[in-house]
TrEMBL record:
Any one cellular-component term (Gene Ontology): extracellular region
Keyword Iron: yes
Cofactor: Ca(2+); heme b
E.C. numbers: 1.11.1.7
Record: residues binding substrate: 139
Protein name: Peroxidase
Bias (Polar residues): 196-210
Membership in a protein family: Belongs to the peroxidase family. Ascorbate peroxidase subfamily. Belongs to the peroxidase family. Classical plant (class III) peroxidase subfamily.
Disulfide bonds: 11-91, 44-49, 97-292, 176-201
Compartmental location: Secreted
Domain of life: Eukaryota
Protein role: Removal of H(2)O(2), oxidation of toxic reductants, biosynthesis and degradation of lignin, suberization, auxin catabolism, response to environmental stresses such as wounding, pathogen attack and oxidative stress. These functions might be dependent on each isozyme/isoform in each plant tissue.
Record organism: Quercus lobata (Valley oak)
Amino acid sequence: QLSTNFYSSSCPKLFSTVKSTVQSAISKEARMGASLLRLFFHDCFVNGCDGSILLDDTSNFIGEKNAVPNKNSARGFDVVDNIKSAVEKACPGVVSCADILAVASRDSVAILGGPSWNVKLGRRDARTASQAAANNSIPPPTSNLNQLISRFNNLGLSTRDMVALAGSHTIGQARCTSFRARIYNETNIDSSFANTRRSNCPRTSGSGDNNLAPLDIQTPTKFENNYYKNLLQNRGLLHSDQQLFNGGSTDSIVRTYSNSESTFNSDFAAAMIKMGDISPLTGSNGEVRKNCRKVN
Ligand code: HEM
Ligand SMILES: [Ca+2]
């Protein structure tokens, strides 16, 4: 039901408008490309790609921003607002916030050096959100391989899709609280890497919880296959990252992607399109929000 030409007559300037706003945000802060990509993932995994993550909490509405995986972590909402304003100026009331996330993610990956792809469009925005579904659907960094596989399989994404999409951790940052247990307690970690990470992530919880470290120690603002090369050296930052190369069924996929950037790029693009297809609202379901933070 989604199509690449959905807005070609109703908003011909959509792609140029989104790209220039994303470009200027990334020029100010390269990490923003990672943050926008993650918003799309956290949107799609919770009742489909419907812009639900963008809704603000109010006194009588509990949204997803304070769900465990998002609180003190999901960011870039101000940039989404800027993109939406620019798009509204060009074509008022036409383009959904869910579609803006899909296009902004594609542009972020491409601007940081990764693959590009044709984004399918025509999603509409939810009038609801679910904090409980966000807590239950987005995998935590403590997940083991079977748990990762099943969270993705539940949404129609294969194990190979999961390994390709996790390659997103070639960009962006994580908080100490997300990787503390790994760097202090695990044995399948390179010891000099663990020491480096310990220097800015104190052992005691409660201190330094929000200190940041790059998910890819080599090139945190370049999108390529270094994530997989790190895994081969036991330099995955999150417990869940290293699960993909820990003697299990996905080792061979990690090896393939570490050896072939082009295979990774094409699998990643295909998996992003597949993730973007997760239960969209179409036709007269949902709405095209005026302001991504609140229902019309
Ligand atoms: C495979 C299961 C996954 C787990 C367990 C996971 C978990 C995490 C965690 C814990 C963080 C750091 C959050 C923080 O400490 O504040 C993170 C960051 C990030 N994740 Fe994932 N993630 C997964 C898959 C994905 C996927 C599929 C994508 C995109 C398609 C993605 C994109 C990102 C990006 C880009 C960042 C950095 C964001 C930033 O710097 O603002 N992740 N992830
Ligand atoms: Ca990288």
